[in-house]
Amino acid sequence: MNIETAKQRVIGLSQEIDKQNYNYHVLDKPEISDYDYDLLMKELITIETQYPELKLDTSPSQRVGGKVLEGFSEVVHTNPKLSLGNVFNESDINDFDSRIRKTVDEDVEYAVELKIDGLTVVLNYEDGRLVSGATRGDGVRGEDVTTNLKTIKSIPLVLKDKVNIEVRGEVYMPKKAFEQLNEKREEAGDQLFANPRNAAAGSIRQLDSSIAAERALDIFVFNLESIEDKSLTTHVEALDYLKLLGFKVSQDVSVCRTAADIIKVCNEWSDKRGELPFEIDGLVIKVNSLEQRDALGNTSKSPRWAAAYKFPPEKKRTVVRDIVVQVGRTGALTPTAILEPVRLAGSVIGRATLHNEDFIKEKDIMIGDTVVIQKAGDVIPEVVEVIKEERDGRQKPFIMPDRCPVCSAETIRESGEAVTRCTNVSCEAQLRRSLFHFASRDAMNIEGMGPQVLTSLMDKGYIRDAGDIYLLKDKKEELYKLDRMGEKSVNKLLDAIEASKNNPLGRLVFALGIRMIGQRAAQQLASSFIDIDEISEANYERLVQIPEIGDKMAESILTFFAQEQNKRLLQKLKECGLNMKGSKLEIIENEYFKGKTFVLTGTLTKYARDQAKEIIESFGGKVSGSVSKKTSCVLAGEDAGSKLIKANELGVQVIDEDTFISWATK
User: Fold this and answer.
1) Annotated active-site positions, please?
2) pLDDT of residue 189
3) For 363-385, what is each residue's pLDDT tens digit?
4) Cα(302)–Cα(296) distance, rounded to whole angstroms?
5) pLDDT digit string (tens) for 49-74?
6) Considering all CA atoms of the chain, what is the largest pairwise distance in Å, rounded to the nearest integer?
7) Contacts of 435 (CB under 8 A, 6+ apart)
8) Domain chopping of the chain, boundaries
9) Which CATH superfamily is domain 3-55 in?
10) Neighbours of 475 (CB within 10 A)
């Protein structure tokens, strides 16, 4: 295949994949099987690998993720992204309506739509192509998360019209995807996400975009922030136009003319919100007329023309049948209430975490108590209060065990901590969960080494620590004899183990299971040091200088690397050939870049945007997503749009790609 033929095939494949993404993720009407879709994507990636110059920023292959970022650049929004004022009851809604009508003389109608419980983001398109995406942040400044947002298949990379447009949307995680994610984290002994909102926010802020790609995120675009050369009169009209462009917008929008109509819609959704496949925490009430919105204006914190109606949390009574204790991978003993099953907020609840001994004492929870429960964030079951009037003398107090329920070792509660821990580092519960975590997708990502396989390997005595995973190649014949582990499965597992040796250091640091060190902190450590030895030898003062690493986290790191068993494990992993090198960015002094803020716009012909960004950062500069007075320089490629215009208006220096190359090579 010559390059011209390849180019035409890439265009055809990209258009077909975009079409199928739209059908599946926006219209919910798939036309082809997942298998056929995967074949199209595989062919596209193969051609782009053979001809890198054909790979565009807007290629569907960009949705796969895989790039590991050093950090997120700051984005200054073109206009403030204000938060909404809240209303909680009928009286508040009537007051809101009265205030609107005092300012606007003519008739008023409202658009009432679902308030998706997720993370607000801002998307910018130039000539119909996605050029940047950022978090809302504090409303003035957010973070550039373009690479992660590209992995969300309901976000169009190319619109159906070549417009310059900015939109606002809510990234969310569907309930089913959230439950599956937490199940995996529980199996691995990881801390659970409290709710889908936290899971979505945590996924979008991953430095490794492949993690965001795996998290089944979705988006509803809910507002048109700005558009060039087009006039619209109402919010509903704007939503219809956004849908025509290819955005996923909510279909559940009601147009109301009175406060009574709004209250009726709010009550209806309060009753049926549990039927939705995603979480909502209320409804948003907006003046529909865009002209009236302008007349109403904003306060310093929120628009006067909109308000958020917040649902009251649903509560139910039930009985605490028992309180059991689970042992996590860090040895933490967590009491859990076994409840008389009750239906709450759309699901049957039979368990609720009681967190720790202090929580139980504070709430005065006893076995046999009648309690009121609700879902924290409408997701995680929690005990709100005890109905002490229901006590009849048969209730029993809970006593935190002084021996581990798994290994019978002594338990301790250190001064200043709320958590009781098992003192046995070889406790089977700790070891099992630690190994689940080590092999999990977010850590070393050893495909085929799930909880069942690991349990079998531990039961046979083949694995006693993480280092033994890399010695399994010497036990090939024994592995063939395990249940459901034929030659093909064994070879696939061993290949995955071998491949994991080349993982970035950040994954290994996370896999080690250092208390309080999550994925982001692990990545920060890996990008701040040359290798694992430098991390292990760092003192407290050096550690707390690293973004994300606080006092307690630094102490946890020091404690981990001071323990002899952990030193032995690291030595064993080194001898097995695991990558121990960090990704510390070497900054080279360059007067053209050092200390300056760059903005990229248009299509670059010799570099992908990510490559240009890496070059700028390697010379001590930083990249922002929008042009402002603080911008030092704009790198303008072909078909540069509104950012170039704004740079010229502000008198910001603009360079072309040839100038950029000459600066980078001096």
Assistant:
1) 115
2) 58
3) 999 999 999 998 765 567 889 99
4) 11
5) 888 888 877 888 877 655 545 567 88
6) 84
7) 454, 458, 463, 465, 466, 469
8) 3-55, 75-310, 315-402, 428-575, 597-664
9) Helix hairpin bin (1.10.287.610)
10) 16
